[in-house]
Design brief:
Layout: H1 2-23, E1 29-41, E2 44-45, E3 51-53, E4 57-70, E5 73-77, E6 82-86, E7 93-105, E8 112-115, E9 118-122, E10 128-136, E11 139-146, E12 149-153, E13 156-160, E14 165-169, E15 184-186, E16 189-190, E17 195-197, E18 202-207, H2 209-218, H3 220-226
Parallel strand pairs: 7-8
Antiparallel strand pairs: 1-2, 1-3, 1-4, 4-5, 4-6, 5-7, 6-7, 7-10, 8-9, 9-12, 10-11, 11-14, 12-13, 14-18, 15-16, 15-18, 17-18
Amino acid sequence: MQGMRAMFAAAVSLSLAVGPAMGSPTATALGTVLTAENAHVGDVSAWVGTTVYAGDYLSTDLQGSVQVRAGAARLLLLSASSAIIDDKEGAPSAKLLSGTATFSTGNAHAFTLYASTAAIRAQSDAPTIGQVTLLKAKELLVISKRGPLEVTVDGETQTVEDGKAYHVYLDPEMAQRPSGAGGSQGPGGPGGTPRKAGQNYFMYVVVGLTAIATAIAVSEAFESAARP
């Protein structure tokens, strides 16, 4: 009788130990770190070969960077940047929390970069390279370095043409007339008023060539290495 009780107790203990582990969700492996310098995955240092999972927090120091391959896409965080990796809609994605991110894709569904309330992705299946800087909580600089991009906010989509840079205002009330040397170019030429997209969900300004050249120089090395 005591033997049966002991066996029963052991079975109950085993079920309690195994049950939660079997019922808990397993994190999805989304990519691998290709390059890392003064970068972190969560609270630990990022190293080449580190596996990145859905929900991981990536960050870089002031003089840091980290590049991740995720399927047919690559993501590069520049200095003083941070993002959370995810797999929304069945494909790799990232939520940019601060700084600048450059991404490359091999097809239109390979990757989506979220920044504030905007979703930025490749418009076509052709190799595409885009760069997004989170300027403020509701202000972005979106640059197409290769191939057109789509910027979607609340169901309204605006195309960023190949080689163009847009200053995107996610709150139309915040948009002001650009000024300054080498500044922005609106529909009426340099210093033009911001254009409205869709039903005023966001506004955008075409940025001048000086800003585009600067941004391209910042991540030129990534472009040569990140083409899928």
